[in-house]
Amino acid sequence: MADKKVEAITSRDVDFAQWYTDIVTKAELIDYSSLKGFTIMRPYAWAIWENIQKKFDDEFKRTGHDNVSMPLLIPESMLQKEKDLVEGFAPEVAWVTHGGSEKLEERLCIRPTSETVFCDHFAHVVQSYRDLPKKYNQWCSVVRWEKTTRPFLRGREFHWQEGHTLHETEQEAIDETLGMLDIYADVAERCLAMPVIKGQKTESDKFAGAEATYCIESMMHDGKALQAGTSHFFGQKFASAYDIQFTGRDNKLHTPWQTSWGVSTRLIGGIIMTHGDDNGLRLPPEIAPVQAVVVPVASHKPGVTEAAEKLVAALTAAGIRAKGDFSDNSPGWKFAEYEMKGVPLRIEIGPRDLEAGVCMFAHRTGGDKYQVKLDGVETSAKEALAKIQQELYDQAKENMEKYIYEADTLEEAAAQMAKHAGFVKMKWCGDPACEEAVKDRIGIGSRCIPFAQDKKAGVCPICGKPANTTVYWGLAY
Ligand SMILES: [Zn+2]
Q1: 177 alpha carbon to ligand 1 midpoint, in Å?
Q2: Interatomic CA distance for residues 214 and 395, integer angstroms
Q3: Which residue from 206, 253, 262 is spatially nearest to 234, judged by alpha carbons?
Q4: Residue 435 domain boundaries
Q5: CA distance 62 to 229
Q6: Could you report the per-residue pLDDT of 357-373, keeping only the tens digit for each?
Q7: Is the distance from CB of 141 to CB of 158 less than 8 angstroms?
Q8: Predicted model pTM
Q9: pLDDT, tens only, 54-69
Q10: Distance of CA 470 from the midpoint of ligand 1 (Å)
């Protein structure tokens, strides 16, 4: 029975896309609703999302941000005030045209993002420099009418957080933009065990209406990139368009400086594709809904169930998210089930273990099962979870480093990508036409201009002009 469950997943190396789809359904993360692009996040996925939310939310609050809730619907006239934003999002907007049976005088857009509503509000509440900064965030879902959809990665509705801040000075807003990117990178690496590259998007790839867009890019197991979070510096563009002004310290009227930043449920897709293997999901302990599962073996024997229950209680009391599986499924079935679900630590206990005062630990990251004393089991479990968290990060980091290539010419880049997808480090002159040409000729797009630039001089592989900027190029989800 256990084997059968494992067989049900396509191998990661045979068909990565099918493997991904198998995981999202078999690990009970997603159900497809009858409306295309709108997925149901099942309890297990939602529990993962809640844990991710908590990690980010704690950081937002620690750095002085307040959570708010903005309206779901935006009048068309309000959206029209900033033309870049309208042009950027127009093809993906869903419209509400009727209220009950009555046709509305003005159609309403379902928020694809909430810059406009925040600006509308800021214009009401900001009058003086004393009202600044405004550091707001909201957790919500947004709708973008995407043509192709994929669970977690691209949906017509997805859950996210959007931070929106307003500042007195340009420097403060820049510091906020980059500070939030640092928080994204830190939580991604420390909690999601997902190594990231911090950088800036090229002009052609930045957010509609932004002066600069910064991002964290991560690499999935198949070598493709996932944009895991973005932070935008708006300058004064939106504030001007929405007539936000404040009286400054000099008693004159000024326009404030603005940022926005977001991460979404796409991070769950990132966790799946970074850490998952042929037996299913592998969840970093920091965000796993169940960190340790206790499986009684030969539970009909006297004392086994009681001992397993005691074990769960001891782990829970120590702050570990633990659960016992006391169902009548076989231990083998349970082993496969919790591997599929990616539970980091499995603890087995049977009659002989009980007699010896021990239990068995098995890590989802592999290695042999080993014996652990019941006395002080909480400490051992915490050590094991910390080790698993680190192992997942190290493995992902190794994978990323393996598939970062350097290339001086398009031919070199194409040859490397043909062997295995990855990030190609290649020089760029800064001309959008050359960026476009790379994509046209060898099919890879710019992922980001990494903050960590090498000092080497080079030439642009397209136009041959001197080029000092290193860009990461690759395929992306
Ligand atoms: Zn060029």
Answers
A1: 29
A2: 26
A3: 206
A4: 404-474
A5: 19
A6: 999 999 999 999 999 99
A7: yes
A8: 0.96
A9: 999 999 999 999 999 9
A10: 12
Max distance between CA atoms of the chain, in angstroms, equals: 82
Collapse the DSSP code of 445 into the 3-class scheme (helix H, G, I; strand E, B; otherwise coil) and give the result: strand
Quick one: DSSP state of residue 78? H
Domain count, the chain: 3
Q: Do the beta carbons of residue 159 and residue 111 sit within 8 Å?
A: no
Mean pLDDT of 84-95: 87
Q: Are residues 258 and 300 in the same domain?
A: no
Per DSSP, the residues of 305-367 read HHHHHHHHHHHHHTT--EEE--SSS-HHHHHHHHHHTT-SEEEEE-HHHHHHTEEEEEETT-S
- Alpha-carbon Rg of the chain, whole angstroms? 25
Residues 349 and 358: their CA atoms lie apart, in Å, by 8
Residue pointed to by tokens 């999202």: 24
d(CA 55, ligand 1 centre) in Å: 41
How many other β-carbons are positioned within 10 Å of the β-carbon of residue 236?
16
Asked if residue 241 belongs to a domain, the reply is yes
- 361 and 416 belong to one structural domain: no
| Torsion angle of the four alpha carbons 395, 400, 402, 403, in this order, in degrees rounded to the nearest 10 | 150
Give the pLDDT band (50/70/90) at residue 456: confident
- Measured in angstroms, how far is the CA atom of residue 87 from the centroid of ligand 1? 27
How is residue 171 written in tokens? Answer: 């420097």
Q: What is the whole-number distance in angstroms between the Cα of residue 94 and the centre of ligand 1?
A: 38
Alpha carbon of 425 to ligand 1 centroid (Å): 15
For residue range 270-315, what is the model confidence (pLDDT) as tens digits? 999 999 999 999 999 999 999 999 999 988 899 999 999 999 999 9
Residue 394 CA, ligand 1 centroid: distance in Å: 36
At 447, which CATH number? 3.30.110.30
Q: How far apart are CA 477 and CA 143, in angstroms?
A: 18
**Same domain, yes or no: 320 and 245:** no
Tokens of 457: 């001089």
- Beta strands per DSSP E along 131-205: 134-143, 157-167, 196-200
DSSP 321: -
